Amino acid sequence: MEHVENLEMQVQELLKLLEAAKQLNSNLEIEEVFQNILLQMVAMVGAEAGTLWVLEPEGEEIKVVAAYGESADKIVNVRLKKNEGIAGKVIMSGQPVLIRDVQQHPDWSNRVDESSGFVTKSMITVPLIVKDKVLGSLQLLNKKQSDFFKDEDVSLAVALASQSAMALHNSQMYDELQQMFLSMIRTLAKVLDARDPYTAGHSERVANYSVWIADKLGMAPEEKKELFKAALLHDVGKIGIPDDILRKPDRLTAEEYDSIKLHTVIGADILSNMEPKKAMADVIQTARSHHERLDGSGYPDGFKGEEISLFARIVGVADTFDAMTTARSYSKGMSYYDGASELIRCKDRLFDSRIVDAFTAVLTECDYNLAQYEADHKKEYRL
Ligand SMILES: [Fe+2]
Question: Per the database record, which ranges form the HD domain (predicted)?
Fold first, then answer.
């Protein structure tokens, strides 16, 4: 009886933690959710180490998405076939498994231990199930201050696992939606860039430059993601500009230039149809204001200084740099070095000096080899 009460208390404790995690969820990377689930389970069941396995979307392999313990860093990202090892068997069967003495067990797959150097003595493996679907399994290794795990430990792990599975499910769904949203935005930007052979890849480059600047400015990861989206969509209003003006090889007349300028207003208008509106505010503002300049000489509103949103000021610098350094039908395009000099020349008058400094720091850091910088930083942002 005492055991059951104890169990209930621990489940309540976990629920509280999960509730707190949920509140933070919108700001949490999925990796952090994986890590939180694992750490809570390890602490509550009292294990020396633990591993969270997730069934890959294709359903053929299982992968370690979080690990805790001595050799955790060597275990993360280990993959096995879905029917390999105990983790896989539990995922296939949906049944928890207690192995008091692991080394004597026929299903033990040595691969993980060999690569990590960790000696597994005793192990609990529980499935993470949501609505009859097994998402993964959680392995707890070596009972603390004892030789082997007992049946009570398994009951506790199973109870905790059902809560954890829900948190895992929610995070995976959220992550999938985010990825889908971002890939749609990317597609939209590509469609836009494809209209003009001279601007191919413009939106993606401006988005990359913007995030690198933001990174140097010390912006938070969530903000950087928002900025990336806003930058990808900054020129979306060009959809509303006729081809013969957009792709005109020679100088534009004053009227033609006026109509090109409208892409800022058209872009903001198009984006204001996207829901939820609150989440789109920065994206809309960036599309509208990325041609504003500090001294008020920009368009469409003639905003000055801090009247221009930070995102728009960053994208304005990234956009100008890409426009200057990309070949057009009428010009070869400047070198990155000359582009940077031009930004520096217009510092404080047209562009925020902090932003220009951040961008020139990026350029000097990679010695003007932006392709290399991109390759080095791609993974970091997981965009
Ligand atoms: Fe633009």
Answer: 199-324
Distance 188 CA to ligand 1 centre (A): 15
Measured in Å, residue 102 CA sits from the centre of ligand 1 at 62
pLDDT bucket at 232, cuts 50 / 70 / 90: very high
Rounded-to-integer distance, Cα 288 and Cα 274, Å: 15
Task: Report CA(4)–ligand 1 centroid distance (Å).
Answer: 64
pLDDT, one tens digit per residue, over 77-89 is 888 898 888 888 9
From the options 3.40.1090.10, 3.40.50.2000, 3.90.420.10, 3.30.450.40, give the CATH code of 2-174. Answer: 3.30.450.40
Report strand pairing: 61-68 vs 79-81. Answer: antiparallel
CA-nearest of 332, 329, 336 to 366 is 336
Per-residue model confidence as pLDDT tens digits over 26-35: 456 778 888 8
Task: Kindly give the distance from the C-alpha atom of residue 176 to the centroid of ligand 1, in angstroms, as a whole number.
Answer: 30
pLDDT higher than threshold 90 for residue 197: no
Residue 224 Cα to ligand 1 midpoint, Å, equals 20
